[in-house]
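Fold description:
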Amino acid sequence: MPAAPVFRRVLLKLSGEALSGDQGFGIDTRTLDYVCREITSVAKLNVELAIVIGGGNFFRGVRAQESGIERAAADYMGMLATVINAIAMQQALQKAGIEARVQSAIPISPVSEPYVRERAIKHLHNGRVVIFASGTGNPYFTTDTAASLRAVETGADVLLKATQVDGIYTTDPKTDSDAARYHRISYSDALNNRIRIMDATAFALCREHNLPLRVFTMSRPGNFRGLVLGEDVGTLVSNEVNDD
């Protein structure tokens, strides 16, 4: 018998940079198509799938402060960048035959639905991928926090964060050849060790609601699907004691 998904509902957190490819800015069409193929392979498993996407490939609110833009205004500009990515993702998924809806925490009625929790859950029940844009709708909060919040609100079984590396390491694997990957780590240790794969607010929210987090990379084809089917991919962060 074919393998069955181990999760009923998942929330995938993608950075905006995940869509920019080697060009480092904007949306690279080939990269977008690749990401959508990986997402489609999971959606076809009849897993209820929600996505929170960042906007760093267009605009970063924190960096904009260096240009003299006030923090709250800069953050709102960053939220609008996530809407561009969400619409692009929606169109690519629908082209692949996957129904998708964009819900924005900042109402932009011509191009997206407003975020309504009950409506989002109904879409998920009906087999549609729901893409959450505009972060939490509030300045000073990251899209990582938005992902944790939406995962808790919609009752996701797990929060999956796609990154450039294949998990959480003891040190930066790009600069330290002796860096070791954690297979499992507790939220408490992640916070105490100041692991910055997500911000502290996002970590704390997951810990408080006992929501497991899996950090992995989508750059390896099949990683996302394998994870949903129960393969030991990336690093698991949970309230359980470390086994490493």
